[in-house]
Amino acid sequence: MKDGLLWTPDKERQTHTLLAAFIRAVNQTHGTQLNGYNDLYAWSVRQSGDFWQQLWQFAGVIGDPGERVCDIDPEHPNRDSHWFPSARLNYAENLLKHAEQYADQPAMIFSGEHEVARTLTWRELVDQVAAIRHYLETQGVQPGDVVAGYLPNLPETVIAMLATAALGAIWTSTSPDFGVDSVLDRFGQTEPKVLFTTDHYHYNGKTYDCLSKAQQVVDKVPAIERLVVIPFDGDRPSLPAGVDNWQDLLAHDAPPLRFTRVAFNAPLFVLYSSGTTGKPKCIIHSVGGILLNHLKEHQLHSDVRPGDRFFYFTTCGWMMWNWQVSALASGATLVLYDGSPFYPDAGVLWRLAEQHQLTLFGTAAKYLEALEKQGVAPKDDYSLASLRVLCSTGSVLAPEQFDYVYQKIKSNLQLSSIAGGTDICGCFVLGSPLSPVYRGESQKRGLALDVQVFNPQGQAVEEQKGELVCCNSFPNQPVGFWHDTDGSRYHNAYWNKIDDIWFHGDYVRLTAQGGMVFYGRSDAVLNPGGVRIGTAEIYRHVNQLSEIMDSVVIGQQWQNDVRVVLFVKLAAGVTLDEPLKQTIKKTIRTQCTPRHVPAVIAEVSDIPRTKSGKLAELAVRDVVHGQDVAQLSALDNPASLDQYRQRPELTQ
């Protein structure tokens, strides 16, 4: 392994990628002589309007692009410019454009913990979308209305979303593991007209009711006029009067599917921030911005093409669900899974990968770490010959997990550590099928995104840690926040540090190869003695110890300074004695620096995380300092915070 190099695509593979074809198209159209990713990236930032216009043509977007690519605001060209201002298109029409060509081939394959697959063809998908669109129309849903899903990751969830988008309405969703209060925090703001839910769902071998929770939501959100129930297992449930059964809606005759084209910047999705620092932000994403950006990220960065099998382990409460669904626009088959990734055992997703010949496997970094801890080696037990791309997101992927992927999953693989978020429903940093993978680095900055690293003085730097910023406009910027009439909340969320520069909140380093190393969220950065330390630097080494199952680190205000406090969840049968504490400290001192060494190490039985699996570092920090956590409902395990209150170790 020279200079951390783990993988390089061979020449034949590079030549046949969609990214290589796109470069050839740019050279032919614009008379350029671009050669490779770095050339294309520089051109795409310099000529971003030409890039997005070329992508529209290359990806075969259905719709009228209009005469202008971008209306540039002279005062705030990055924040307030408008892309394709006169374009008209429909998101669902573009996701279903391959249906006629591949009518009897699988559009979606679903499996759960029972591991019995259910397939829906493209023809069946179109017919069912038509039926649900017709139902929504009969309920008075119009362009601009909101339709919501309180649902598992089912094919029917995708169908309900496509039906909503087909008539120009707005889709919003959350997963059934959210409690009633969490759902009210979200749907209480966006006020959907119709709510889709399920009767129950399965997780880790247990069955959980969802219908009763959905009925409570309906009772408390007056805007909801109809509740539709999707039977999870196909059996007809007993439903209260006035509640519609999904199966009945499909049985009604419906006219052929029609698509209502809307403006490029018309709302398509409302996504929600984690809400750990207040009520969740309702982030509005546009029809055209989502479509174009996902086409870029799928086809150019991930080489997704017709006939591929596309899988991402996600729930409907995470933006990766929206990201995954858009792969239909590239002609890929969606492989959906709902349930625990470790039930009945750690091989459940890899059996799925083998059985359905996945070409892209997407997951969270924590999942790969857990597999490594359990000693799971998928390459020894499963045929992964079709797998070309493995994506990881949700938290920082440590260098050791890069090693694990190439040693224990597959050696000839594009490992894409991707990072962005709900804010843009996409990525600032992601993969390149033309480029090498280096240990511990995300491959490249996203095409047409002027991503830089700023030091505290607001200067762009390389090979130095700093803030991830974006210095240009891009189509998938949020339309705004729901009910943010003057735009102040939107401005304060991203634009208020340096005028017209997007600050994303990640603490990173731009490498000599043009890749990116992540050190954690910048608002969780530790600052002992005035030295900034990324939390991921500590997790990387502590979580590799066999005695440690998980950890969370914070900075505690202490004697006019900040001291590092580490909480650890131990493996079964392990005691946090003095020898183990010294092992932890020695590991951190040796692998990081003396400033990284925690002043206090304390044991907990659980580490708080959000429902999308992200560490709730700020919630722990607030509890330690005796402050209220604004939105406990955003956490997957809020009761775990009780262990962090009034710890005697933190008073001495």
TrEMBL record:
<dbReference type="InterPro" id="IPR005914">
    <property type="entry name" value="Acac_CoA_synth"/>
</dbReference>
<dbReference type="GO" id="GO:0006629">
    <property type="term" value="P:lipid metabolic process"/>
</dbReference>
<dbReference type="InterPro" id="IPR032387">
    <property type="entry name" value="ACAS_N"/>
</dbReference>
<dbReference type="InterPro" id="IPR020845">
    <property type="entry name" value="AMP-binding_CS"/>
</dbReference>
<feature type="domain" description="Acetyl-coenzyme A synthetase N-terminal">
    <location>
        <begin position="37"/>
        <end position="94"/>
    </location>
</feature>
<dbReference type="Pfam" id="PF00501">
    <property type="entry name" value="AMP-binding"/>
</dbReference>
<dbReference type="Pfam" id="PF16177">
    <property type="entry name" value="ACAS_N"/>
</dbReference>
<keyword id="KW-0547">Nucleotide-binding</keyword>
<dbReference type="InterPro" id="IPR045851">
    <property type="entry name" value="AMP-bd_C_sf"/>
</dbReference>
<dbReference type="InterPro" id="IPR000873">
    <property type="entry name" value="AMP-dep_synth/lig_dom"/>
</dbReference>
<feature type="domain" description="AMP-dependent synthetase/ligase">
    <location>
        <begin position="97"/>
        <end position="469"/>
    </location>
</feature>
<protein>
    <submittedName>
        <fullName>Acetoacetate--CoA ligase</fullName>
    </submittedName>
</protein>
<dbReference type="InterPro" id="IPR042099">
    <property type="entry name" value="ANL_N_sf"/>
</dbReference>
<keyword id="KW-0067">ATP-binding</keyword>
<keyword id="KW-0436">Ligase</keyword>
<dbReference type="GO" id="GO:0030729">
    <property type="term" value="F:acetoacetate-CoA ligase activity"/>
</dbReference>
<comment type="similarity">
    <text>Belongs to the ATP-dependent AMP-binding enzyme family.</text>
</comment>
<dbReference type="GO" id="GO:0005524">
    <property type="term" value="F:ATP binding"/>
</dbReference>
